[in-house]
Amino acid sequence: MNVLKKLLAVLTLLPVLAVANEGGFALDRAPERPSLTSLQNGAKLFVNYCLNCHSAANMRYNRLKDLGLTDEQIKANLLFSGDKVGDLMTTAMRPADAKAWFGAVPPDLSVIARAKASTAGSGGDYLYTYLRTFYKDDTRPTGWNNMVVPNVAMPHVMWQLQGVRTVKMVEEKDPHDHSKTTHKFAGFQQETPGTLTPTEFDTNIADLVGYLEWMAEPAQLTRKRLGVWVILFMCLFVLLTWLLSKSYWREVK
Amino acid sequence: MAAFKETKFPANAPMTDKAVGWVDDRFPLSKLWNDQWGKYYAPKNFNFWYIFGILATFILVLQIVTGIFLTMHYKPDANLAFGSVEYIMREVPWGWLVRYMHSTGASAFFIVIYLHMTRGLLYGSYRKPRELLWLFGFAIFLALMAEAFFGYLLPWGQMSYWGAQVIVNLFGAIPLIGPDLSLWIRGDYVVSDATLNRFFAFHVIAIPLVILGLVAAHLIALHEVGSNNPDGIEIKDNLGPDGHPVDGVPSHPYYTFHDLFGVSVFLLVFSAVIFFAPEMGGYFLEYNNFIPADSLKTPTHIAPTWYFTPFYSVLRATTADFMYVLMAAVAAYVVFLWLKSRLSFITKIIVAIIGIVLIIGMLPSVLDAKFWGVVLFGSSVVIIALLPWLDHSPVRSIRYRPTWHKYVLVVFGISFITLGYLGTQPPSPAGGVISQVCTLLYFGFFLLMPWWSAMGSFKPVPKRVTFHAH
What we know:
The structure holds 2 protein chains of 2 kinds.
Chain A: H1 2-22, H2 36-50, E1 56-60, H3 71-77, E2 88-89, H4 95-102, H5 112-115, H6 123-132, E3 134-136, E4 144-146, H7 159-162, E5 163-173, E6 181-193, H8 198-216, H9 220-249
Antiparallel strand pairs in A: 1-2, 3-4, 5-6
Chain B: H1 15-24, H2 29-38, E1 41-43, H3 52-71, H4 81-90, H5 95-123, H6 131-153, H7 158-170, H8 178-186, H9 193-225, E2 248-250, H10 251-276, H11 309-317, H12 320-340, H13 345-362, H14 369-382, H15 387-390, H16 403-424, H17 429-447, H18 449-452
Antiparallel strand pairs in B: 1-2
C-alpha cells in the first residue's frame, strides 16, 4: 500500500505546482520518527508546552499506555493539577477568556494532524513547518509572528528552546508589474541562541509532530499491524476461491 | 387456495430434509431459493463487468451492519456529534474498524455503482424489455445520492456543515417556493442542530427502507425478464430439451462460487484501503472534515465528496456567459429535431414552443444563471434514466456496433471523469472552460444518441453466446 500512497502523492503533487505559485508558505517534510521513545518524548513536550492553552478533549491520558508507558509513569511525569489517569486531556482555560486574552480560542488538538493535511503536504508537514517558523515581530500583540499562519494569535511557546529569530526580507521587483516591489522571504536570522541547537530543536519538534500524528489516530499502530495479516489472509482466500470457482466452471462447455 | 398437503417422509429420512419439508409445506422456501438463485438460469458468458451488481448488494449489507454499530455510539446533537465519532474511533473496541468500513464502504458503493452503470451502457442492459429494471436502478442511484448526502452531515465537520449549507441553498434557487423550501428542509434558517437530527433520521431509517424496497423491485424486475449478457442476445430464445436456455447455467453452484471469488477480490482491495489508506489522500475522508463545524468560519474551498463532483462541475460550469452558448445549443437542437427527426408535426411544434420558452427563460433579465445551473445539475442526473428511449441502435451490445461507437463511449467517459476531477478543484479560468466543453459533450452524448446510435455499419449478431471453456 506504500505504492498506492506514493502514486497518490505523485498525483497530488500536480496541483501543488499551482498552489506553490499562488502563495502559501512551502512546507518542509516532517521527518519520520516512528520509535516509541520519540513518541514518548513528543508526549512529554505536548503535555508540558501545549496542554496549558490547548485541549485534546478526545484523548485520554491512559491511552498513552499504547506508547509503552505504565499508569504510574503517566501519573508521575505527564499528569498535572489533580487529573486522574483516566481523564480526558482538557484545559482549564475558558474559551471566553482565551478569546479575550489571545484574540482567538486555541483549537482542540485531538485531530489537528489530520485536519491540517492538504495538497501542499501532510498534516505532519504543516505542523512541523508551523512550529519551526515563528519569528520576532514587535508589531504583534504577542511579539511573535509565523510564516505558515501570518498574524497568528499563538505566541512562540518554545522560544526558549529555539531562541529568538527574526526574518530577513528582500525587496524584489514584482514579476507581474515592474513598477512595484514585493517583499520576499529570504530566511531567518538567529538573534539570541536557544537552549537547544537548531538540529536538536528540529528533532524535538519532529517528535512532537510524530506524537500529534499518533494522537490524531491512536488506533493506527494496531491498524497497520493487523492490516498486514488481513492482506496476507485475503490473498490466500482469493487464491482458494479462484481455484474453487475454476473447479466448477471446468464442467461448463 | 389448494388444501393443505403434508409432505410424507420415510422414517429414516434425514432430520434436515424433514425440517425443510415442514417449512416448505407452510412457506415457499425451497421454491424461492430455486426460482431466485438455485435453479435460476443466467447466461454463462458473464465477464468482469457482471460482478458489480452482487458487489453493490454486498456493500449495501455492509453499510447497514456497520451503520447499526455506529448508531449505537453516535450522538446526533450538534454539540456532541463530532466528539462521538472520535469516541467511536478511540474508545469503542474495534470502533475505528467499523467507522473506516462505513466511510470506505460509502465511496466503494459509488465506485461499484458507476461501474455497474457502465456495464449497462456497454451491453445495452437498459433496452427492451429491461427499461423498468433500468428505471428502478436509476431510482436506487437517486436514493443512494440522497443517503450519502444526509450521511455526510452526521460527522459535523467543516465540510459536512458547509457542504450541506451550499446544497440545501441550491433549492433556494427555485423561483417562488425556493427560500421556503430550503427553510422546510433545514428546519431552521441555517444548517443547525434541527437539520442534523432530521438528516440522521433520513440517513438511518427513511432512505435505507426506500433503498431496500427499490433493490427488491430491481431484482424482481431482473428475474422477470432474465439477465442480459455481453453479447446482447436473449438466451431464452434458445431453449434446450430440458426447457432451460442452452447458453445458461444455473446460478448455483456456478455463480455462487464465481461471485464468491469476485467478492473476495473486492474484499482484498477493500481491506487494503481500510487498513492502509482509509483517508485515500483526502478523497474518502476529507481533511477539512476533521475540523469541527464552525458556522462563523467559511472554508476557502467548499466541494462535495468526489462521487458528486461530476454533476457539481456541471452546476459550476453554468455561468452567465455560458447561458449564451446554451441558448444557441437549444436553438440548434430544435432546428436539428425539425430537420432530422421523424416526430409528428404537432410534436415538432410543441418542441419549438418549448425551445422558445427555454431561450426566453435563459435571457439574463428573466431567470439568472444560478437557476439554470441548478436545472442543468438536476438534468445531468435525470438524463441517465432516459437511456432506454434515447438508444436507437439495432444491436444491444457494443461488441456488434461499429468500432467508432466505442470511441464515442470513451469520449463520454473521459468527459465524465474530467468533470469529476475539475469538481474537486477550486474554480479556475481554464477549468471553467474545460468543464463547459465537457458539459456540452456530456449532454450531447445523450441528446444526439437517437441519431449516432443508429449510424454506421453494424456487425452480425451471433445466435449463440461467445463462450470459451474455462
